[in-house]
Amino acid sequence: MTTPKSKYEVFREQTKIILYGTNTFWGRMFDLVLLGLILLSVILVMLDTVEGINNKYHSQLLICEWIITVFFSIEYILRIIAIQKPLRYVFSFYGIIDLLAILPMYMSIFFPATNILTIVRILRFLRLFKILHIPQISHQSFQLKEALQASKEKILVFIYFVIISAVIIGALMYVVEGRESGFTSIPVGIYWAIVTLTTVGYGDISPATPLGQFLASLVMIMGYGIIAVPTGIVTAEFAKSSLRSNAVSTKNTCKKCNAQVHFDSAKYCHECGTELQKT
Amino acid sequence: MTTPKSKYEVFREQTKIILYGTNTFWGRMFDLVLLGLILLSVILVMLDTVEGINNKYHSQLLICEWIITVFFSIEYILRIIAIQKPLRYVFSFYGIIDLLAILPMYMSIFFPATNILTIVRILRFLRLFKILHIPQISHQSFQLKEALQASKEKILVFIYFVIISAVIIGALMYVVEGRESGFTSIPVGIYWAIVTLTTVGYGDISPATPLGQFLASLVMIMGYGIIAVPTGIVTAEFAKSSLRSNAVSTKNTCKKCNAQVHFDSAKYCHECGTELQKT
Amino acid sequence: MTTPKSKYEVFREQTKIILYGTNTFWGRMFDLVLLGLILLSVILVMLDTVEGINNKYHSQLLICEWIITVFFSIEYILRIIAIQKPLRYVFSFYGIIDLLAILPMYMSIFFPATNILTIVRILRFLRLFKILHIPQISHQSFQLKEALQASKEKILVFIYFVIISAVIIGALMYVVEGRESGFTSIPVGIYWAIVTLTTVGYGDISPATPLGQFLASLVMIMGYGIIAVPTGIVTAEFAKSSLRSNAVSTKNTCKKCNAQVHFDSAKYCHECGTELQKT
Amino acid sequence: MTTPKSKYEVFREQTKIILYGTNTFWGRMFDLVLLGLILLSVILVMLDTVEGINNKYHSQLLICEWIITVFFSIEYILRIIAIQKPLRYVFSFYGIIDLLAILPMYMSIFFPATNILTIVRILRFLRLFKILHIPQISHQSFQLKEALQASKEKILVFIYFVIISAVIIGALMYVVEGRESGFTSIPVGIYWAIVTLTTVGYGDISPATPLGQFLASLVMIMGYGIIAVPTGIVTAEFAKSSLRSNAVSTKNTCKKCNAQVHFDSAKYCHECGTELQKT
């Protein structure tokens, strides 16, 4: 009944299994080679910016880059051909990254400096966990993502207050310290305030007058409390989500006494001894 | 029966709706324009302190500043006129900020440098959430505020001990390192101690002698434990408040005594012993 | 029956009330004056190390210091006389601090530079909370102390591992970077490792070779996880102690159904509705 | 019946008790001497790298090092002789460290600079807690280890994202800032990104252009949230493990099925439903 598949269809199917699948030997093989090439390509771009290496091996590096780019281009085209709904892939997160990974190289023919943008290929590496397929890791990733998602709004509110504080502090330090100490303008003062509040503290700009140092000390002690806030937010979310997902849960409500909190592994209610019915 | 409103009264009412309200189209519009002007004004003040820009565009920037200031002044007067109890507004938090936002510009006629103080206009931005009116955000702000409120006293006690430690450490390092390494006086030593304990670490002053570096190492390791304290305090409060809003909830309001906060698992009201009806 | 008190005894009693007590008007007054003098004295010592001030006002500052020292000495002697068990006071924590607060000044007659040690007077300030007597604050202090006490051992173990890591890292960086980058010896390398692991990062010594920068990056990323540990320890203790002391407790075990966890304010058991008997 | 032990066997047994045991007087004594020698040896290696000391005392230090090395060598051989299964010791964690502690010194006969590697002797110090044998400490170590173990995967996922971010940020800053500000290549840019994200902030490389400073500010504020993540992970694990060892305890071992971990409040075993007998 089923019409025999054309050669092209068989080729498309095979390609799809290799490019998108991770279960077959060749599918897995391809993914590993791909990861290797991405890594190699990123390292090549990085090395090309190191002066000593650039002077000696620039042309060799460029040739390698072009070879990898051509390989990625073919892969990109095959990915479009192989899949049923090519547009969905093209506009998906990974589809856009795959395009961004080859585009800068072709652009560099016309605009010489843009080949440095090929560094975005590192984003293709986000596929790593999908490829490695370790359930442990993906569970943990999920928990991480969930906790950050839940604390997103609180952190936004917090950053909003930090920025307002930074503007005020920056302007104050600009007035107090002035150009001699490196506070050449209010934006620079704000930059200093952020460097200080986040406890990064480069020291490229630092207060030199007694009053400036006194104010800076206040800002730092304030920064103490401030750095505690995002940590507190994220930690509370983690604690909540890990309590929820581990050890103790409220899924096995006892049918007899309605006690709700039990160990996930509990078989009998710890309140009345009735057997629990898992749901 | 009701006396027809005078033109002035209608004007006052309309003004009030536009200035204070956020529900009508014009009220919302006005708020957005206001936020835009505040932002613009703050950016203008900041740019005016950048040397390159100041030299070229100082007079243009100044004119813009004056236009915005006049607008803010009219708005301030209208706010006083429109409201029933003008004094309450004048001495409220936002009232004072609104005044502070226009005052420095007028002062700068007499004292040239004071126009930089117009940067306090950024504080008018604190209205943002009130205007945007996102329930999610205001709930989160409330939780943030509550957690910080609850940890206020502990953090004060903590800062008090940090300051005493900083004085002792600062004096010690002044004695050990001396003027050659930049520890020119005890206050400078204290400044260094705070820079170190908060892990900011500018490096404008750093120990140079072996003994000084050894002591600094001890201080830094001590600082490890110390930075953990405010984080611990705030986190514990967050965890508590988020646990409270979880395992403990306000869903099962008691029908008899109206007590709202119960364990999610509570069957009887813990205030009056009445059986709770789950919803 | 009671023998009339001698004049000396009355004087002793009066002195005791003023020096040790905080309930009477004069007792409180004395404490406040004392705190003021301590603060003044500490500020004087600090100012005396600032070059500009030292040159101009050294003798005036010295006279003030001596007056305060004599006052403290009299106070110290009176404290010994007034109390029943003088030895217990002398060897108590505050007794030793009180002695340390006056000793350096007398020592400075023979050893000129030692008067800087009078800065330890700041420790007398630890009495502040005892004097102010705010129950809220002392409750919080207690909680802080308890949480730190409980995490003491874990933090010791942790610091022990940090120091071993710092030694290994320091030696490694000394070998990799060498004298040119400022890693002049292994102890200096260890100093750098501690500066980096604690995220202080002065930048007085920083890796200059590519390999050194690579290793430093690894150390910093490791430091990420490491700084999380003391915070985690302290936070967990805080969370535990604040859960224990607040809101929910296990004090009011239900006599009928033995449910243990209730709100502190609960009057009826939330499991069976029986009235709770506070203990 | 038992054949009399040969002199060699008695010697082996005695040696074993002294070298491996910590209960007998001589066993304990030996351990303390060993710790002392390790510490001394590490300090000697460190001092030998300090220029001033190296010039004057190099030969003396070297002789001491050799004496300690010979002592350690004899100890190592005796440890192999004394134990029943020498291979298990040789390839155990401590066995390898013990070998590494003596090897570099012998290697330095042929390769002069390698004697610095004797610093790995510090690892022998990891035995400290085993020797001191404080149950409190070893319990805490266990909890620390367990919490870090549990958060291992989450932290790996996290570091993976941090590295990808650092690559992108580093490349971006290289493009924006360029060689003038010290961003001489993308690897250097990545190094800077890690220095900034971890809030170490040496300041050896720091942005100089307004755009660079703006981007750096964004990175730092991002770093805020980022540093919260490992702390959150570790803290949540600590909180969980300390909650588990509290509200949940191992006091009520089930008499029937030997299940050990129950809620403190459990009345019936959650494994087999048998009533628990409180102790």
What does this protein structure show overall?
4 copies of one chain form a homotetramer. With 279 residues, chain A is mainly α. Helix content of chain A is 67%, strand content 1%. Chain A has helices spanning 7-20, 25-48, 51-82, 86-90, 93-107, 128-132, 135-177, 186-197, 210-245, and strands at 248-249, 262-263. A two-stranded antiparallel ribbon of chain A has the order 1-2. The radius of gyration of chain A is 28 Å and the shape is flat. Residues 245-249 of chain A have low confidence and may be disordered. Chains in contact: A-B, A-C, A-D, B-C, B-D, C-D. Chains A and B meet through helix 7, helix 8 and helix 9 of A and helix 2, helix 7, helix 8 and helix 9 of B.
| Rg estimate of chain A, integer Å | 28 Å
Q: What structural category characterises the helix and strand content of chain A? A: mainly alpha
β-strand percent of chain A reads under 5%
**Low-pLDDT segments of chain A:** 245-249
- Number of strand segments of chain A: 2
SSE ordering of chain A? HHHHHHHHHEE
Most extensive interface: pair and counts? A-D, 69 and 63 residues
| Widest β-sheet, arrangement of strands of chain A | 1-2
Number of helices of chain A: 9
Quick one: biggest sheet of chain A?
A: 2 strands, antiparallel
The 3D shape of chain A can be described as flat
- Mean pLDDT score of chain A, rounded? 81
Oligomer: homotetramer
Helix content of chain A: 55-70%
Distance between the termini of chain A: 44 Å
Keywords (chains A, B, C, D): Ion channel, Ion transport, Membrane, Potassium, Potassium channel, Potassium transport, Transmembrane, Transmembrane helix, Transport, Voltage-gated channel
Membrane topology (chains A, B, C, D): Multi-pass membrane protein
Subcellular location (chains A, B, C, D): Membrane
Main location (chains A, B, C, D): membrane
